[in-house]
Structure formats: structure tokens, C-alpha cells
Amino acid sequence: ECRFCCTLSVCTTPEGSYFIGSENPNDTNSESILHATQGYKSGKKLWNDQDYRCLEPMKKVNPEKWPHYEMGGYRAAKTEGELEKVKEIKFDKNFFNLEDPEVWKKFVDKKKGPKLWKKTYGFDFVSIVSQKDGNSNNTVCYVDCYKAEQRSFARKCKKRGGLFKCCVISLRMDKFEEVR
């Protein structure tokens, strides 16, 4: 398996965050490609992209199983006390780990996969859809959103003066499949 990791050292002060090689919290990298410091500062998506989570080092725990910080709170923390209050996201072997052959096999299982997607990523509905000529048919998800508008959660939302929304996301796994 070809896997690697990288680190980024950050100092956060009341004036902002700065990185090794810079003493100015307002420095920005002018490169057109995404630089690690820009990824750290953004709420960038993780799917099929760089992973900018920051791990929480723990004594007596294998580093491969360290939890990660909730990044909004982590970026904002300026003192040890504030950092201690940042939410910890427990290690989950399945979370963004499709490179692992065991994890891959569980996620693509037509019967058990959708349950694992829901548990790992918090989706309400999951369907493994086949793809033909680079196109996938997401109609089953659109139908679920339509049905969700009629369900109790949506009705309660509307009763409370809220606006019900249902979002569809289509996640492609072909990069991982090619590697396999």
C-alpha cells in the first residue's frame, strides 16, 4: 500500500495564525495551487481531496488510532485551555479510509454498505448506484428527498417556522476502484 502523511506547524495568537517560515498572521501564499496553509484555513471538503484534519496526540494510543479535532474549534483555539475544550472526533477506521482494502470491501457491499455509509458519515439515505459511461443515475436519491418532504421531520420543521431542505450528494469512488 502506498500511503503517506504530512504535517503543518501552526501558531495561533489573538492576532491570527501563522506557520513555519512566516512570523506574520496575515501572510498568504500566492501560489495558484492549494498550499497546505490555505487548506488548513479553509473548510475544504475531504472527499477525494486533501485531508486537512488535525490529529489529537494521545499518550498510550497508537498514532494510527488518534482522534482528530473539530477543525472550526481547533483553528480558533488560542490557548491550551481553549484547545482542551475543542470537540474530539473519535477515531473511526472507516472514516475517509477507502484506500484500505478491508474498508473498501465493506463500503461497496450492496447489502451492508449503505448502513455503513449512514453510520460513518451521518447520511439519512444511501444508495449504491451503478454508473454507465461515466454517468450515474441518482433518481433514487431525488425520490428519497421528495418523500422526505412528506415525513415527520419535515412537517415538524415547517411547524416550527423552519425551511426544510434535502441535499443530494453524489460521491464517486472510481479513483479508489482504479487503485484497487
Give me a quick take on this structure:
The chain has eight helices and six strands.
Could you explain how this protein is built, in words?
Helices cover 32% and strands 9% of the residues. By secondary structure, it is an alpha+beta fold. The chain is extended, with a radius of gyration of 20 Å. The model is unreliable at 29-34 (pLDDT under 50).
List the helices and strands and how they pair.
Layout lengths: L9 E4 L2 E4 L16 H6 L26 E2 L1 H6 L3 H5 L3 E2 L11 H8 L4 H9 L9 E2 L2 E2 L2 H10 L3 H8 L14 H6 L1
Antiparallel strand pairs: 1-2, 3-4, 5-6
Approximately how much helix is present in the residues? 25-40%
Main sheet summary: 2 strands, antiparallel
Cα Rg: 20 Å
How many distinct beta strands? Answer: 6
Please identify the structural class as seen in this structure. Answer: alpha+beta
Approximate shape: extended
Query: How many angstroms does the end-to-end distance come to?
Result: 10 Å
Mean pLDDT equals 78
